[in-house]
Amino acid sequence: ESVLPLVINTWAFQSATETAWKVLEQGGSSLDAVEKGCAQCEIDQCDGSVGYGGSPDEMGETTLDAMIMDGNTMNVGAVADLRRIKNAIGVARAVLDYSKHTFLVGESASLFAESMGFLHEDLTTVKSRSIYLNWLNQNCQPNYWRNVVPDASKSCGPYKPVKGFKEWKNLHTENKVNLHSHDTIGMIAVDEAGNVATGTSTNGATHKIPGRVGDSPIAGAGSYADSTTGGAAATGNGDLMMRFLPSYQAVEYMRLGMEPSKACEKTISRIQKHFPAFFGAVICANNSGSYGMCCLLIASYIFH
Ligand code: SD4
């Protein structure tokens, strides 16, 4: 008996899974299921880590990364550092459907979105403002600057965002990030005929340096789909994970005949070899509906 169709996503974002499932139940495509499912998380602001009003950057702004991939045509639409538009995966889908490009970024991506009829809205909320202000007031540690050493004599806060190399050189803090500075929806949908689609949507890493793009919108990193094999999606420390193209890697392991769980484990362990303390997860499913995952979570880690 066929175990298809199938929807699987990262984290316990059940409303997203249900929305995607409904699309498949009504005979919709796996691509539509992924788009609608991830869009549900953008509306729900899943965990504060997807959609508007979460993960303010060092200047307090929320920016969004998303991608969607069609495993039949190998078409991809992606946006990163998207500003003032809530429906990031919708814009990614518009890039896929209406342009010959794969990836649009920053202000220009927002202009593209507006030209496609997406609403221009402020992504800042009372909550994201207060996350930002609390961080400024209580934190003496920038989250994402490399090679800065702790200075025990320095008391915490208020933190001033780093403006340039001179300031960076003067920093005396430790780069610590905790688990809750990351989260993302990554979704795989396989319809009854075995058509695979994948997608992601995230507001990235909290207090990131403006302009930072994570793994999520990058094909092969955040997710990857190939209907001849299956699909995969990743979540976790995108700055590290994107160096290993984990979603591509997991699909390629499955292509070689590996069981989905084994494919995910092997993918994670390759990253772990270089970064023993990284946290992240990979989920994958093959085109006949077997699925697996591997997750490595550590409460807090030193940023590499
Ligand atoms: C990022 N990978 O922007 C995303 C965040 C994430 O679970 O997935 N967190 O780095």
UniProtKB/TrEMBL annotation:
EC code(s) of this entry: 3.5.1.26
GO terms, biological process: proteolysis
Site residues (Cleavage), renumbered to this chain: 183-184
Entry keyword set: Autocatalytic cleavage, Hydrolase, Protease, Signal
Residues annotated for substrate binding in this entry: 212-215, 235-238
Catalytic activities: N(4)-(beta-N-acetyl-D-glucosaminyl)-L-asparagine + H2O = N-acetyl-beta-D-glucosaminylamine + L-aspartate + H(+)
GO molecular function: N4-(beta-N-acetylglucosaminyl)-L-asparaginase activity; peptidase activity
InterPro entries: Ntn_hydrolases_N (IPR029055), Peptidase_T2 (IPR000246)
Domain of life: Eukaryota
GO CC aspect terms: lysosome
Any Pfam family matching the protein: Asparaginase_2
Active site (catalytic residues): 184
Similarity comment: family membership: Belongs to the Ntn-hydrolase family.
Described purpose of this protein according to its UniProt entry: Cleaves the GlcNAc-Asn bond which joins oligosaccharides to the peptide of asparagine-linked glycoproteins.
Descriptive protein name: N(4)-(Beta-N-acetylglucosaminyl)-L-asparaginase
Organism: Hymenochirus boettgeri (Congo dwarf clawed frog)
